[in-house]
Amino acid sequence: MEEEKVNEFKSQANDLFQKMKYEEAIELYTKAIEIKPNAILYSNRSICLMKLEKFMQGLEDANKSIELDPKYPKGYYRKGSALFELMKFEEAIEAFKQVVLLAPNNKLAREKYQLCQKEIKRILFEKAISRELEKSPFETLTFNKNDIPNDYDGFILPENNILTFEIVKEMIESFKNEKIIHSYYAFEILKQIREILSKLPNVLELSVSENQLLTVCGDIHGQFYDLLNIFEINGYPTENHFYLFNGDMVDRGSFSLEVILTLFSLKIVFPQSVHLHRGNHESSNMNSIFGFFNEVRTKLDFKFVGLFTELFDLLPLSSIVENKIFIVHGGLPSKEDFKIEELKKIDRKQQPDTGIMCDLLWSDPGYAIGIRPSPRGLGVVFGADRTQKFLENNDLQLIIRSHEVKMGGYEVTHNDKLITVFSAPNYGDNMNNFGSYINFRSDLKVDIKQFQAVPHPKTRTYYANMM
C-alpha cells in the first residue's frame, strides 16, 4: 500500500515537472519522501529546487540521494550541478568524476567535468590578470572606426557620437532585426554611460510629481523582446515618465547585450528619467557562468568583459522614492537595526560576494520570523518582523524588490509591506510565468501591471545549463 502511494505521488510529481510546475512537483515529491524516502525521490526533488534557484537545498537533497544509494549516478550528477551553480567548481569536479565512474557512457557528465575545469582555469587567469592591471580598461583600450568592414549593416552612430531618442530607436530596430553592433560603436556608448554612472551615489533619491509616472521593472535577464514589449504597452521613457530597472538586466537570456546597450543608451538620452540598479547578476562571477560574458565575447570582443565589469561596479544599489519606498534588487541584510545611512557609505566598486552588499543583492523574504540562511547559498532569508523593523527604523512605508521569479509576475507579502516584481515572462523560455511592472503616480498608489511573453527569434544560448 505504501509503495503504491509513493509511486502515485512520484508519477504525479513527474508530470508536474514536465509541465514546469516545479513548486507543485516539490510538494508531491515531499509527500512521497515522507512515506518512504529513496534516492530517486531526493534526486528528483533536487532538480526541482535548482530550477527555482534554491541551490543549497538542491545540494542537500542530492547528498541525501547519495546517502540512500551511493551507486546512483544521478545523485552525484545533481550534486555536481548544485555545486557548479554555487561556484564551488573543485567540489563539482569530484561529483562529476563520480558520475563518470558509475556511468562511463554518460557523455553529459564528461562535458560538465570539462566545463568545471575550464571555470577553474578562467578564475586563475583572471586573478593573474587583475594583479597586472592598474589602469581602467577604458583608459587602455581603443577601437578604430576604420576597422568597420565595408559590408557592415548594423547600427551606426552619427559623426558626433551624440545619442538622441530617435537614434536609440534606430539602434533598437537594428537589434530587433538581429544586427550585431560593431565594437567601435558599442565602446562609444560604454564610454558615455561610464561618465554618468561614475557620478551617482549608492542610494538614488527619486520623486514623482503631479503629471509624472514612475515605472519599476524587475529582472529582465536578457529578454530583449519582452523589454520592448514593456515599452510598447507602457510607453518609452520621457522627461515625465521615469523608469527604474531593479537589477539582473543580463545573463540567461540570449539578448543580454542588446538589453544592456538599450538601457544604457536610454539612460544617456534621459539621465534623469532612466535609473538602473545593480542586481546579483551584474557581477563577473555570475556573468562568467550564466552567459553574458560568453555573449559579449561572441558578439563583440573579449576585451569588453573588463569594460562591463567596471560599469556594473558603478551601478547604484538602491533607490528611495519620496522618502517612503525603498527599492533594492534582493532584500535586507542580516544586520539588525540596519540604517540607510550605512548603505550610502558602502564602497560599491567591488564584487558583491560578502557582507551587506551581498545581502542587499542576494537575500529573499521568507515566511518565518527573523533571519535564516538562504537556500541560494548567498544572502539570507528575512521574515516580516525584519521588514517591519527596517521600515520603522528608516521611516519608510514599503519595500520593492525583485530577484525571484513569481508565476503571476509579482507577489505581495510581509503584511503588504513588501512587493516582489519580476519582469521576465516565461523566464528562460521554460517557466510559463507572467511578467509584471509597477506604475506609481504622485499619490504613490501601487498599480501592478501583468504581461505575457512575446515571441523572439530562436538563437543559441550562451550559458551552460547544468541541470
CATH architecture of the largest domain: 4-Layer Sandwich
Total domain count: 2
Distance between the termini: 33 Å
- According to DSSP, the number of beta strands is 14
CATH fold description of the largest domain:
Purple Acid Phosphatase, chain A, domain 2
Low-confidence stretches: none
**Quick one: CATH superfamily of the largest domain?**
Metallo-dependent phosphatases
Helix content: 40-55%
Order the strands across the largest sheet as they lie in space.
1-5-6-10-12-11
Describe this protein's structure.
The chain is an alpha/beta fold and 467 residues long. The protein folds into 2 domains: 2-129, Serine Threonine Protein Phosphatase 5, Tetratricopeptide repeat; 145-451, Metallo-dependent phosphatases (Purple Acid Phosphatase, chain A, domain 2). 46% of the residues lie in helices and 12% in strands. The chain contains 18 helices and 14 strands. The protein has helices spanning 2-18, 22-35, 39-51, 55-68, 73-85, 89-102, 107-132, 137-140, 165-176, 183-197, 224-234, 256-269, 284-289, 292-299, 304-314, 340-344, 355-362, 384-393; strands spanning 203-206, 213-217, 241-245, 274-276, 318-321, 325-328, 364-365, 371-373, 380-382, 398-401, 410-413, 418-421, 435-440, 447-451. The strands form 3 sheets. It has a 6-stranded mixed β-sheet. The two termini are 33 Å apart. The model has no long low-confidence stretch (mean pLDDT 95).
